């Protein structure tokens, strides 16, 4: 009963230590968990006594008292860093009690550093902080507890350490503990048993609070922006906190002597009711508090009609700063001040054409300054807009029909075909193209809707249900046709601009083709056959969705060709070749290496130019093939013969020196291919002056105007290949 009575008294003292108007008491209990706490008093371990006393204390602690727990020496032997704040200050009594009960003493006695750790947990450099240390032995880690205590007192806002020496008889240990308490303004007590421990805790808890800190001079001021000029008039202030309440202070700035603590300050500018607020912590030194207000906004006004039709433009007259990014907005009345449904920049004129939203209702016109501040507002009502749609019948799949309509015809408005009740278009056409409006029907028959859609917000303002009927399709093809030939295919169907007749393999997927011809090019369609013989299929393909709507089989027959010409020619020379073959529109003869792919080509000539046909030999000697190539898909080689291209005998005779600007005579021998020439050049230029070999041998050749070292060259026109050279010195 005695122990219980003493605990109750201690708790009452703790409760009385904090005045009712102050913040809840916050403290941390620092408990010794070093190995010496296993020592016994009257047959009971000191740690057990401490656990029971602290548990009783916690059970009856007032609800407003926030307590934490720091332990040392409780985890590891011989470790001066074995310090842990296991419970931060709070009202969870059960957590603190459980942590105390769990202590198993093990290690050293770093009590000074433990007090420092508790102080830091209480933010002792910012707020009032109280630590209660319970220890049974001498400091074993920090060489100077007194110096550490002085440092805590000097750097803390209001730091106090109360110390209880539990079963301590060592004079040095007692001196350390007393110094630790006195240097921080705390109380030191000793206890030899459980009852004395309760009494000691009662004494330290009831230690008198230090004298209130002296008031601090605080200046309150406001500026127009970060780092801007101070506002000199037209402000109203309020200040509250720590028992202080000031309202309606009509001053540009004011000073107040305030006790340390936390305060809330609010300032309002009367001209535009712009405001700012902040929280300030007053400590020991005078300070200046600066609140920032936005710049005082310039005046603005709007002139506009009271209403307008949805989606239409209205004329708005305005007065305001006219900044390059300022705009007139239309927004919902309760929208953020920078929000908009539609807008127009004021830089585009005054008065200004401003579009209205696409949905009817009550809105607000706003002059919005760059930065998102609304300078002026004016109500505007958006009235409904309507449209009508008329469609002829019947409507055939894939066909383009004229749709009659009425409506606002705003820029970008369109008619569209959609699924019933839908809003995603299948086909569409812009209303700007008139009424009736050509509109293509879907490729598949079925139930649809034609809708009038406003470009703004894709808002649908009219719907017309329609039924699209299936169209008839057909193609007529001969049973056979020569490979690479062009045949005529009569067809039936809508004949839309992107519909086409195609030939492909019978098993090919829709949309695949070898060759094709558009319906827009006429009926019958002219279609080129593949170059490879075989079984194929002629198809009517609807371009809208590449669906095959009609098909007919056809057999493509092999065709022959032949080429006849010299077996050998000189490089670069032009020679004639006779040929036989289908003479398709793009068929040609070409000279290529024997291993060239069928689609490769070198020098070539079209068969449409007749037989015999002139063709130019390559400039590089070697073995080649002369081929007849049918312009089919893919290209097909119908005939080939070997061709040897031989090097030419080439020589030049000319003087080695010449006078600048004069002419010299050059005798030459060479292939004399069309446009071959004799030139004078240098290291940078293929030619400076030249004469064509078609002018004969010998020929006159102009000498460059500048003296220097040059070359006389035989140059093939084909590829600019140089076949022979002579040095020439121009003087």
UniProtKB/TrEMBL annotation:
Looking up InterPro entries in the UniProt record yields: VWF_A, vWFA_dom_sf
Q: Which UniProt keywords apply?
A: Signal
Leader peptide range in chain numbering: 1-20
Q: Where does the VWFA domain lie?
A: 26-204
Keyword Metal-binding attached = no
Query: Which SMART domains would you find in this protein's record?
Result: VWA
> PROSITE patterns from the xrefs?
VWFA (PS50234)
Which top-rank group of organisms is this from? Bacteria
Record-annotated membrane-spanning stretches: none
This chain belongs to the protein called: von Willebrand factor type A domain protein
């Amino acid at each position: 009963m005695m122990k219980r009575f003493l605990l109750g008294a201690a708790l009452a003292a703790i409760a009385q230590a904090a005045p009712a108007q102050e913040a809840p008491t916050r403290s941390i209990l620092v408990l010794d968990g070093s190995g010496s706490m296993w020592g016994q008093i009257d047959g009971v371990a000191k740690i057990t006594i401490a656990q029971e006393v602290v548990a009783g204390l916690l059970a009856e602690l007032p609800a407003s008292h926030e307590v934490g727990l720091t332990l040392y020496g409780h985890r590891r032997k011989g470790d001066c860093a074995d310090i842990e704040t296991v419970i931060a200050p709070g009202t969870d009594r059960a957590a603190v009690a459980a942590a105390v009960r769990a202590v198993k003493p093990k290690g050293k006695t770093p009590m000074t550093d433990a007090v420092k750790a508790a102080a830091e947990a209480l933010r002792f450099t910012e707020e009032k902080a109280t630590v209660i240390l319970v220890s049974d032995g001498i400091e074993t880690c920090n060489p100077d507890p007194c110096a550490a205590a002085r440092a805590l007192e000097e750097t803390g806002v209001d730091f106090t350490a109360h110390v209880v020496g539990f079963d301590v008889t060592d004079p040095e240990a007692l001196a350390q503990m007393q110094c630790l308490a006195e240097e921080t303004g705390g109380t030191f007590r000793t206890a030899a048993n459980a009852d004395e421990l309760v009494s000691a805790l009662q004494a330290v808890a009831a230690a008198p609070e230090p004298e209130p800190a002296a008031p601090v001079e605080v200046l309150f001021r406001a500026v127009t922006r970060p780092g801007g000029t101070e506002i000199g008039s037209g402000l109203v202030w309020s200040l509250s906190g720590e028992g202080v309440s000031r309202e309606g202070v009509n001053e540009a700035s004011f000073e107040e002597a305030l006790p340390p603590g936390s305060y809330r300050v609010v300032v309002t500018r009367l001209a535009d009711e712009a405001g700012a607020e902040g929280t300030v912590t007053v400590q020991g030194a005078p300070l200046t508090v600066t609140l920032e207000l936005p710049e005082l906004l310039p005046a603005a006004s709007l002139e506009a009609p009271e209403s307008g039709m949805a989606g239409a433009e209205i004329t708005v007259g305005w007065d305001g700063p006219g900044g390059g990014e300022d705009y007139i907005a239309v927004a919902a009345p309760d929208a953020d001040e920078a929000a908009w449904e539609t807008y127009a920049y004021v830089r585009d004129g005054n008065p200004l054409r401003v579009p209205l939203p696409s949905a009817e209702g009550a809105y607000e016109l706003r002059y919005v300054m760059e930065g998102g501040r609304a300078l002026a507002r004016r109500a505007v009502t958006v009235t409904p807009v309507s449209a009508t749609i008329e469609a002829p019948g019947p409507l055939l799949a894939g066909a383009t029909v004229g749709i009659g309509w009425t409506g606002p015809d705003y820029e970008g408005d369109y008619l569209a075909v959609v699924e019933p009740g839908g809003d995603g278009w299948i086909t569409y056409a812009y209303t700007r193209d008139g009424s009736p409006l050509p509109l293509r029907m879907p490729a598949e028959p079925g139930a649809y809707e034609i809708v009038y859609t406003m470009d703004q917000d894709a808002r649908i303002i009219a719907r017309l249900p329609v039924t699209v009927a299936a169209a008839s399709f057909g193609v007529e093809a001969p049973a056979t046709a020569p490979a690479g030939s062009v045949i005529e295919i009569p067809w039936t169907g809508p004949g839309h601009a992107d519909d086409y007749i195609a030939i492909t393999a019978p098993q090919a997927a829709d949309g695949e083709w070898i060759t094709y011809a558009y319906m827009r090019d006429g009926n019958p369609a002219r279609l080129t056959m593949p170059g490879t013989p075989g079984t194929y299929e002629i198809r009517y393909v609807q371009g809208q969705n590449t669906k095959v709507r009609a098909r007919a089989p056809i057999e493509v027959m092999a065709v022959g060709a032949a080429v006849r010409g010299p077996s050998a020619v000189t490089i670069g020379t032009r020679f004639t070749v006779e040929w036989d073959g289908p003479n398709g529109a793009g068929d040609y003869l070409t000279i290529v290496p024997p291993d060239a792919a069928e689609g490769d080509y070198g020098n070539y000539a079209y068969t449409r130019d007749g037989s015999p046909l002139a063709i130019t030999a390559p400039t590089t000697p070697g073995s080649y093939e002369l081929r007849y190539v049918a312009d089919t898909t893919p290209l097909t080689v119908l005939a080939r013969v070997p061709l040897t291209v031989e090097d030419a005998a080439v020589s030049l005779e000319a003087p080695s020196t010449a006078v600048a600007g004069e002419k010299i005579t050059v005798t030459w021998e060479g292939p004399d291919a069309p446009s071959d020439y004799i030139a004078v050049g240098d290291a940078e230029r293929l030619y400076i002056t030249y004469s064509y070999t078609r002018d004969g041998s010998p020929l006159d050749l102009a000498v460059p105007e500048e003296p220097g070292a040059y070359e006389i060259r035989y140059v093939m026109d084909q590829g600019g290949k140089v076949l022979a050279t002579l040095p020439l010195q121009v003087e």
